[in-house]
What does this fold into?
Amino acid sequence: MKRRNLLKSMIAAPALAVVPKPATAQAPAYGNKDSGAGSPDNFNLPVTAPDAVAQPGQLFFSSDQMAALEHLGDLLVPRIGDRPGSKETNAPKFLEFLISKSPLDRQTLYKNGLDHLNSEAARGYRKSFATLNAEEAKPILKSLEDAWTYAGPSSPFAQFLLAAKDDVLRASVNSGAYATAMAANTRGSSGMNYYWFPVE
It folds into this structure.
């Protein structure tokens, strides 16, 4: 073969023929569980409790305020037969979240109102509002019996009581627990299946 023909044949050869074949991919070699050598299943990672590395979020209401709200909810929307009330629907916890995201004037209305409940209970009975029975709490909640007016009450405490009564009722009847209980006991009472979920 002439040198010229040899060069032509080499140039015409496919480029892939001279490209080296890639090496076959190899999976990482882990040891078995018995040997404990490098297996992902045997990695010993330390587990740390969340509270050890971060502080839990501060609740919006103080413990005394929250206790007063929970008791107020029990008095305003109690459980009646199979119909769950404020406690069973966890309405106060939802309201704490709702008020924490509300405008400042609404937050102030609630905080001052809950403090007033406790101060009135301390003044009249020397104990917290949360420990009063229904008869003892009745004089403190007397403004709820006033006749309705278009302008509403002028007293900030009476305004709080009306707002809390409406909010606790709405939070209770629009909860998942209420919808489930009503659907199980009354035909057609499951509503449109729109309700708030518990706050984690």
